[in-house]
Amino acid sequence: MMWGAIRTIPRAWAGLIALAAVALLGTILFGGVSPLNLMVLVLLYAGLAQAWNILGGFAGQVSLGNAAFFGIGAYASTVLLDRWNISPWIGMIAGSLLAALFAVIIGVPVFRLGGHYLAIATIALAEIMLILFANWEFVGGAVGLSIPFIRGGDRRPTDSWAYLQFNQSREGYVIVVFLLTALVTLVAFLLSRSKIGYYLRAIKNDQLAARTLGVDVQRYKLIAIVLSAALTAMFGTFYAQYLLFIDPETTMRLELSVLIALVAILGGVGTVAGPLLGAAVLIPISEMTRSLLGGSGNTLDLVLYGGLVVLISVFQPDGLVALTRRGAGRRASREATPTTSQETAAEEAPLIGGGSR
């Protein structure tokens, strides 16, 4: 059984790579969106959705406040760099720790709620954080913070791995975000096959039954939100260095939290491949329609974007990853169909050796 599961992984990754290639090819052909920028966004949202999936998919705790963790990561690294010239890599670790601490503080009271109340509570907390940062002068308030260029000996902007800036060759950002997304995907993959992952699924299916069987529900919920928060904050640091500017609206807005969740839902929550597949499909469509229609389409891009999500929710509620599973199931059933000679042998088998029919 385990070997059969492992054999399907390469096919899923091959399909994902093919989808991403088609999306990029379409962007190049139709124009309007930089392929490199699109690849960064696809990988960024794939990683963010994967981090959300640990809490919302594996544990079934629907949070719409992950933008707060994203913003904490962005602000922590930016403030450390701007005030004390500390490398963003160190700031990334600091931001993840702060986001994890914040997750514990809010998780203890919030997880006493459930269903729609949990989602509403996370929205409210994220909005409170947005208002707080918008009025906090130390972090720039509503004006935000700009990150200075790293300059070489000729005083021109240059590339620096130490300070996570690539002003001349932007491909460095693709490498960094790819590695971050690969790290989050590896964590999700290992978690899904660990004891903690099984406990989270039990909590998702029936909290009362899980508690009755001895699962510490509150503890494992906190583990899920801490992992989700810390991993989300890492991408906040990356995004700040990618834009070289942050403010509360770009890092903590509600729309960001909703988009992160939608990417995972579209691909398939509770699966490792789902968030990756959702990002490979949804982000290119969103960017292309916004680029082609945003200026003159009277928000038609938003209509197409929302319509796709509605269609998937109605006709394929388990997400796009269920389509690949369905295809694999059909192939398996065809391979398992016995031939006429096999059926005859099966019927005559009891008669061989003196058995009774």
Short characterization:
The protein has 357 residues and is an all-alpha fold.
What would you note in describing this structure?
The protein is mainly α. It has a single domain (14-323), classed as ABC transporter involved in vitamin B12 uptake, BtuC. Helix content is 73%, strand content 2%. Strands 1-4 form a two-stranded antiparallel ribbon. Strands 2-3 form a two-stranded antiparallel sheet. A hairpin with a 4-residue loop joins strand 2 (159-160) and strand 3. Helix 2 (35-58) packs across helix 12 (273-293). The longest helix has 29 residues, at 2-30. Residues 1-8 and 339-357 have low confidence and may be disordered.
What characteristics describe this protein?
single chain; mainly alpha; ABC transporter involved in vitamin B12 uptake, BtuC; two-stranded antiparallel ribbon; 73% helix; disordered N terminus
Give the name of the CATH architecture.
Answer: Orthogonal Bundle
Average pLDDT, to the nearest integer? Answer: 81
Q: Supply the CATH class.
A: Mainly Alpha
Order of helices and strands: HHHHHEEEHHHHEHHHHHH
Q: What share of residues is helical?
A: over 70%
State the separation between the terminal residues, measured CA to CA. Answer: 31 Å
Beta strands, count = 4
Q: Which shape, going by the Cα principal axes?
A: globular
In the CATH hierarchy, the third-tier topology is known as ABC transporter involved in vitamin B12 uptake, BtuC
